[in-house]
Known about the structure:
Structural class of chain A: alpha/beta
CATH architecture of the domain at 321-501 in chain B: 3-Layer(aba) Sandwich
Strand order of the largest sheet of chain A: 6-5-4-3-2-1-22
Structural class of chain B: alpha/beta
CATH superfamily of the largest domain in chain A: Ribonuclease Z/Hydroxyacylglutathione hydrolase-like
CATH architecture of the largest domain in chain A: 4-Layer Sandwich
Largest interface: A-B, 83 and 89 residues
CATH class of the largest domain in chain A: Alpha Beta
Number of helices of chain B: 24
CATH topology of the largest domain in chain A: Metallo-beta-lactamase, Chain A
CATH class of the domain at 321-501 in chain B: Alpha Beta
Oligomer: heterodimer
Helix content of chain B: 25-40%
Strand content of chain B: 15-25%
Number of strands of chain A: 30
Largest sheet of chain A: 7 strands, mixed
Number of strands of chain B: 34
Strand order of the largest sheet of chain B: 9-7-6-3-2-1-23
Largest sheet of chain B: 7 strands, mixed
Radius of gyration of chain B: 36 Å
Number of domains of chain A: 6
Distance between the termini of chain B: 36 Å
Amino acid sequence: MAIDCLVLGAGQEIGKSCVVVTINGKRIMFDCGMHMGCDDHNRYPDFSLVSKSGDFDNAISCIIITHFHMDHVGALPYFTEVCGYNGPIYMSYPTKALSPLMLEDYRRVMVDRRGEDELFTTAHIANCMKKVIAIDLKQTIQVDEDLQIRAYYAGHVLGAVMVYAKVGDAAIVYTGDYNMTTDRHLGAAKIDRLQLDLLISESTYATTIRGSKYPREREFLQAVHKCVAGGGKALIPSFALGRAQELCMLLDDYWERMNIKVPIYFSSGLTIQANMYYKMLISWTSQNVKEKHNTHNPFDFKNVKDFDRSLIHAPGPCVLFATPGMLCAGFSLEVFKHWAPSPLNLVALPGYSVAGTVGHKLMSGKPTTVDLYNGTKVDVRCKIHQVAFSPHTDAKGIMDLTKFLSPKNVVLVHGEKPSMMILKDKITSELDIPCFVPANGETVSVASTTYIKANASDMFLKSCSSPNFKFSNSTQLRVTDQRTADGVLVIEKSKKAKIVHQDEVSEVLHEKNHVVSLAYCCPVKVKGESDNDADLIKQLSEKILKTVSGAQIHESENFVKKKLMSSSDSTAARDQHAPLLRPRHDGSSSSSSSSSSARPTALAVLLGRITGHRAPSMLVRETAARALEERRIDWGYSKPVVAADILWNAALVLASAVMLVGTVEERPNEPIRVWICGYGLQCLIHVVLVWSEYWRRNTTRRARDLESGDHEDYSVYDYEQDSDNSTTYRLSVIFLAIDVFFAIFCVVLACLVGIALCCCLPCIIALLYAVAGTEGVSEAELGVLPLYKFKAFHSNEKNITGPGLLHMSELIRGWCRAS
Amino acid sequence: MKLTCLSKGDGFHYPPCHMLNLCGFRILIDCPLDLSAIKIFSPVISCVASEASKYPSDESLDAQNPIQKKHKLERQLTFADLVCEEPWYKTVKPLHLWDASFIDIVLISNPMGLLGLPFLTQNPGFSAKIYMTEATAKIGQLMMEDLVSMHAEFRCFHGPDNSSFPGWIKNLDREQVPALLKKVVFGESGDDLGSWMRLYSLDDIESCMKKVQAVKFAEEVCYNGTLIIKALSSGLDIGACNWLINGPNGSLSYVSDSIFVSHHARNFDFHGLKGTDVLIYSDFSSLQSAEVTENGCISPDPDNNYISTTSDNKDSLLNTEDSLEEMEKLEFICSCAAESADAGGSTLITITRIGIVLQLLELMSNSLESSSLKVPIFVISSVAEELLAYTNTIPEWLCEQQQEKLISGEPSFGHLKFIKDKKIHLFPAIHSPNLIYANRTSWQEPCIIFAPHWSLRLGPSVQLLQRWRGDPKSLLVLEDGISSGLGLLPFRPIAMKILQCSFLSGIRLQKLPTLLSVLQPKIVLVPDAVNQRINFAAMKTISILNYFENKTLRVPRIADNPSVEITTDLASKLSWRKLRQRENFGIARLKGGLLMEDGKHRLVSGLEQEESSGKARPLRHWGSVAPESLLDALLKIGIKGSLEQSIGETGSDDNSIIHIANPSSGLIEVSEMGTAIITDDENVASQVFQAIDGILDGI
């Protein structure tokens, strides 16, 4: 029992998604896409790996298409019509409705514009779509006896689904492309917590983590607005479905709000037709849209019109959605050719562009010329805006989904190899789930879950359904509930396994129960006559019954036991033996509990004597305070502080000495020289004192470090020493502090003066100005203001001023409106 | 499993209601409202006074005369007999006998079955999980809102009345009240009084709908880990469904009113219902129609061969005869409407079945367009706009023809186009300003109007009927069963043409045996009335039980013992023992924890506590110990003993005693029932125990 996952496409790359999974012998093909960047035979997945003979109907149980993008559905007509697959194909309703449009559009682009051979015809598409069975979200479909599939909402494009497939007990999920955040028109992916053996996830953005979408939306709108405001044309090459609708909703909304009259065009009727589908498939959009649609269908765009080819060269600004996206061929490329040379125009590229397309070239740098398909070169002078609206989930989303589902294995497809490897390591290390990144054509095999099935008896189920707590207090109180351990699994050869309650086992085996009991034989020494043995034993047994619960006493065997024991133990002739059937551990547990209860009291007494009557918390506080004090002093005597102190004082001494020497000739009136000498001397003494203290302290500390024991007396002595020395210490610190304070004070004062001179004055002026000036005049006030002025001029100074002032009031009014 | 049929319902608008006890869970299936009982109330008619005084004046004079009282009882019902009060609504009576807080699950199989639910959810103790399809929830909610808005008219007319006891009932208890009215109010046995309720409010609807869990067709929902509930399309209407419930004790299917081939909703889903253990057949619709047509016992179609393969049977069920008949009916209505429009009369259609309305709208506008008649179509309902918009966004819930339309990019129903072309006009109420004042051009007679409510007591249909009743050119299209009895009483005399149509609203009785042979259930529960009418003799493989209204039927369990799934890693950890006596048995004591997951018992490795306490568990042994073999076994481990046969007092001489002397003294009593090891040396005891364990099988 295993699951084999054969990757036919999108292994370590993006494009032509196709994964064939074999679950317990059932083969399911997920997606059947084509590569948009390849033109050769590599465009299609290598179907020969599935079946050499080409008998696909027997090789594959069903095909499931997750959504209508070409790299997920592109090869389907080829596979069904050319390769001859006739089995069932499952798609969601929107996918079924929209994929023929996509296929037809692509076919036209390929054949009509590029002039290539037809890969499949319109008839092929129609025939192929006839075989498709549409499914709804969460609808559980029984493909055949064993295979069950179910679709979950993926949120990538309209109708995108994740697929859950189950064969027997083994289950997998293939995500297709998905989006974990809510979109403007689509919801976020939604899935139940399932028990999975394998999760096959896309990993387009395996390492990117994206923030909120709103800034990007604003950026896009601003870029487009700026372009059309400047009279330019904005080209948005996109596929007819999905992105186009989202951006269009965005633009339509913006146009409405800003009251912009610039036309928005859709290049082909296809998109208009697609909008029709969107209107009908409201139930597949986001909750927000669903709620709104009762009053107004959000896909009824108000400003959107159909585009005509003649409009390419029409003057004036416009916004155009042109197919196909990525500027790979067709109409969008043609329009690009015409519009690219003008610097007024804008090309907004939404989403991902496959390597090799013009879109990719534009995105990867800012080229001045671009080669088109048949050697034509185009100067690119227009602005290029990259709209990072990807409907794919980011790395965080992939991790979240994986964590949520916690499957037994993960396979990553649909991504770029280097980042996939990083994600793989992340999944393996963070979530501890084996992860695989197979290349095209490789197979990953993982084990699948299987359950062993057994019929359970009612008695077992009943005993399991009621709690059966057991309490045991060997070391600590334990509560155990082992209902299932009452059950016994019985397997008879060539019969189905049965689960029965332990009381039923003998019945099942047609045997009789046999009770094996243990009796503990303990001697009870009794002094007395042998006549009243029976009475004695009776009394004894009553007592035992009272004290020991669950004991059974064999009384009738008195005689036997007595005889037996007397033969074996001849010395104790008068002993009476009462054999007791009792649990053996009873006595020991009670004794141990009594001893353990006695021990703590003894310990408690001992502890009390040591600590005296001081509460332990006091002690702790004292020690903590002492430790703090010590550390503070230590800091005062740390090397840099002492060094700085000494250096500073030495400098002072040096300075005073130099000054004294330098001013020998001076004869000051005051005895200032004495004062300087005194100061220098004091500094010198300070240096010496500090140094000596530092040295002494270092030696004592070293000595203390060497001493291992923590002696009470020593610490007291140490403490006293500290307090003794602290006077000198404090003195030095005060000196130092004064010095430092003066130095800092001088510098700060100088600085303040400088700052005051340089900047404060204009600052203050500005501040005053600001305070005095308008501080938030309300709009109403402003509205009144110019009117008032205007009138005032009219009434008083009409003759004198005239047009100049009128002009000014106009200005003010204009400014008012703007604000 | 226990089934109690609370009500067998009455036609499409009053589906049956059942209470089911399954796996210890109480399941309520459907919670309808008997809207036909509203007929005892008089409608709000603008010119009531003049009408009432004009027509039955002489009779009301008679009523004053006490001598003619006896005669009065047999007299014709008149408009004055109707209760002129704010109406109350009749719910399912036996449902009030159940404590709402003990209901675990509510399954709603069609929008009609939803109408009574707010009465239940008003109960503060109500905590059940409510399942219905998304479409049922949406349409049902709209219907309830429509009902409340139509009822508001009464409230305006009669003024607020908040008494908890209906005053009008007192008046009805008098002698001169016609028996027909009494029967509706008090029921056959006279105890229906408690089932009358004041209508819920919009808030009640909202709080009710908040508790609903909407599902899709064939979506599996798991209740409490035990029951897996699945809704499968029944074809009756958009969103209407049958239920499949899978539990640990087998599967159960509930077949409500169903239509095999539908023209608008998704077809009957045979596939999912196949091979269940129990099938509850709850389609009473055939009874009403059968009563009219045939009185005898219907035997299965003679041309139906039961031995034929199921696929043939399915084909016979899926033949489109019925649906063609339905289409003919609709076309007939269209042609009648066109005729009367030709003659200058208007048509009032009071049918409120959504599927029928949608098809009629499309047919009618198509036929009008082709016939170049300039007759506008009005749809007057407070929810018309929302409902019609909604029906075009649910291709998943519709039949295949409609889905084809989706694929080709057309809207599911044609009305969208006609609304845009101003051929169909939607108005929320008859007094909408757009209809009467602002845009006079839109109102034009003759016209075709779709207006609720089918009971002719509520909504715009009352006013319109009042307007046109004297016009012999006009046409009134009614649902089946309205015209008899009280239905048209307030509007008599009527000069209008009346077209009463009955639409297929369930499985035809003749098709039941074929259906059962396709679905192959093990036990079928059918209503006794159905069983009387049909000969089930041909169905030998299926056991058939009858159920009665208001009686609980107990159904024995037929499935095997429930199966338990054990994970492989746990199974590999179990310590297996081979039995000595029986070679082909292997036994193991279980570990882990038993869970209920997805309707299956599952044994998974739980908290590992076995190491500590596993040894303390008493062991079970079975078989018997032969004293000789025990002696041998003891010798092998170095314990010597001697055998002594003792004769028990009861006469059974099987008690044997083995004395042990070496290494310490002790004795072993061996009997058929058990073995006792008696010694004061623990080592010896354990050695002896092991020796016995070696002889016996145990676990």
